[in-house]
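Sample entry as discussed:
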Amino acid sequence: MVRTASLSLIALLVLSSLLLALPSPGRSAEWRDVSDARLLNAERDAGNWLMYNRTYAGWRFSPLDQISAANIKKLVPKWIFAGGTVGDQQMTPVVNDGVMFTTSTSLAFNRVHAVNAATGELLWKYDRRTAEDVGALVRLIPHNRGVALYKDKVIFGTLDAHLVALDAKTGKPAWETKIVDYADGYFVSQAPQVIKGKVVVGIAGPGEMGPRGFVEAFDADTGKSQWRWYSIPAAGERGSETWAADTWKIGGGAVWHTGTYDPDLANEPWDFDTVAEHHVIDVVRNGQTQKAVVTANKLGYVYTLDRITGKFLSAVPFVKSLNWGAPDPVTGKGVETPGLRPTMGGPPVEVCPSLLGGTGWQPKVYNPRTGLLYIPSNEFCMKYGYVPDLTYKKGQLFTGNTTEHFSKTEHAGVLRAFDVNQNKVLWEWNNRTPLISHTLATAGDLVFQGTAEGRVVALDAKSGQELWSFNLGTPQSGGIISYAVDGKQYIAVAAGGTVRSQVWFGKEPKWTHATRLNFSDVVVVFGLSE
């Protein structure tokens, strides 16, 4: 069984720029370094997408409005770039002044591309070979979610637990650092985050492989380690009393997801107590504005916490398939429904939502213009059991459960618009399969949503009405972003599918149509027709 610890984090960034205010970088423009100041003020840099979530606040909101609800019917493909691998495409592209950086991953290598963001022309490609004896989990899910940019460097993590920096202009290696021994099952899947000259990255693997998870910071110029924080406390540390004997040594606590950051707070910027990002939002409750973090998590609830004090403010359900229990209304701590915890070797129990969550790692997005948090949510359950016996073996899977996913409803995927001030869902858009794809909100009153069936759709941000769609021909599974080059707005969609979806969808008849799609590794870029 896996537990994770939490660390307070947070961020307040105000998105304000419009397309008309952005600079117009040419396709032949000289490289412009990505400084600390540019990262800190990324919300004002409307034409670029400089980091995984675009800004430290984690909103994934683009202030570009050239593409809008009024002209969305004119959105057409402009170019397609193939990364050269098959499936497990989960990366989010980043863009700096007309240059896009993408990743493609197979078990054999981590690959990084630099691409002309206006034409799709390949500028350079870098392949780093992966060690052949990596752990069992990475062999099942060899994926990478993207890169970080800092100064003239492109920085990414590898499947064998290294951190690598490349020259952004040439793709040549600048430095490489070993984070930890991959033989213990560690690897890096998340896109790193750069904060004040430090590359902050979490480690994947511990949740299913056993050893303790951690977050580590490295000097962005040299790659040297600066500090490490473990998600599971060691003996004698605060919280260690909740771990019997030496179980903390194999307690898990993987850190899969890129964090958010509040530059106005003095504490370290990460909070990894759930898989979901923690949106830095000022909410209005009872007529008072409160500095908050808002997160929609796997339990099927939207939690709101005071980001200054950590005080629990509220927890509101956003899915209907719920039977595991409910948060305590005073503390927010989960209170289990009796009888739903399986026994070792006993019969499976029916639990809702599935362990994939009421929402999973797929980013939730926030539009400050509408005050809505757009949640790709799932109405599905699982038959969940524990194996009769479980013994930890280094480098081997350490999960001990059996799982079968199913849905009681016709539409398992539901995009929900949640008003963070009113604390309630305002509208829904339904999809047959679970929404394990990405979402984007823009100032053009649009929300873009991908699906496992291979569609990307554009919805009216205020009503949820479907306005436009395009068939990608492969499952949409990576990031959706917006950027501008030479005054023209683009929408980029990373697609290709995830191998795990074949397992997730395999025994539910209502989802088999999605398993017939071919996997791929493409970025499809859209713009308005001339």
Remarks:
- The helical segments are 36-40, 136-140, 206-209, 500-505, 512-515.
